[in-house]
Amino acid sequence: MGFFSNQFANVIEWKEYRDDVIFWKWSNNEIKKDSRLIIRQGQDAIFLYNGKVEGIFKDEGSFEVESDIIPFLSTLKGFKFGFNSGIRAEVLFINTKLFNIKWGTKNVISIPAPGLPAGMPIRAYGTFDVKVSDYLQLIESLAGVKQIYTIDDIRERVLSILDPLLMKWISQEGKDMFNLQANAVEIGNGIRTDLDMQLIKLGLTVTAFHCSNFSYPQEIQEMQTKAASQAMVGDMNRYQQFAMSDALSNGNNRGANTAMDMASMQMGMMMGQQMVHNMSANVQPSPSVSQSAGAVPPKFCPNCGTPTDGGRFCKECGQKLI
């Protein structure tokens, strides 16, 4: 029985040393007349006889098999223990708690993306919650052939079908392939629904599925960092704050002074440019300047195109030239 304690013929119990076990099957040659069933908190016990469910017991405590258990079994109801005889039966202990299981893609997944013929290669990580929901289905699909079932078994089964589910829900229209984390909740809920439809066949239900992180190739991460840096430099105020904060956080006085000098110089340049802009906007040309005696008429009339010959008015249409 591996890491479980040795079981005596007259004690039916599951001493749960590991909290990652979903169910464990108690097996012995026979259940004696004076046997006791012990159910601990967070456990349910299922009596099996010839592979058939005889009874399900959910109340925790210690129970006499002959007086507290046998009267409630289906086909064994009223069974009488004879001299040195017992029942050849099995007891399946179910862990009733909610299991939180970590997951991560084994290989890189290529998600279809515009402009990328080979797709966007990503990895993803997160957790999902699962619990036993249907005892009869669990026994029919798993417990009938297995002695023990752990969260590692569930994880392997989930990972075997997870890649196409990730591709399905990430590829939905409207997803920003460069910022999948913004759609992590929607993606997780979609995967949970599809995954639950698969695991319900095993008597298990998925209550939550979380995408904690999407990992991009190094080249994509560097491009995102560069784009963010360029956007920050474009905003001079933010750039000055960034440069000053970066130098100060390094604890280098020389670097801090240099950053301060650069920021001051940039600020002075911006103020000078603003003053020139304001002065240009406020100064309006005087009408007397444009109408001064030194003004030169155009060579051709702007109205009809007739040569002006230096006159102040067009001789063809009378348009005033200066």
Describe the structure using short key phrases.
rod-shaped; 8 helices; disordered N terminus; five-stranded antiparallel sheet; 322 residues; Tetrahydropterin Synthase, Chain A; single chain; alpha+beta
Can you describe what's shown?
Strand 4 and strand 5 (52-57) form a beta hairpin. The protein has helices spanning 65-69, 135-143, 151-170, 184-199, 218-234, 236-249, 253-282, 287-290, and strands at residues 11-12, 21-27, 36-39, 43-49, 52-57, 61-64, 90-95, 99-104, 109-113, 116-132, 148-150, 204-215. Strands 5-4-7-2-11 form a 5-stranded antiparallel sheet. With 322 residues, the chain is α+β, with helices and mostly antiparallel strands. Among the domains are: 11-95, no CATH class; 99-220, Tetrahydropterin Synthase, Chain A (2-Layer Sandwich).
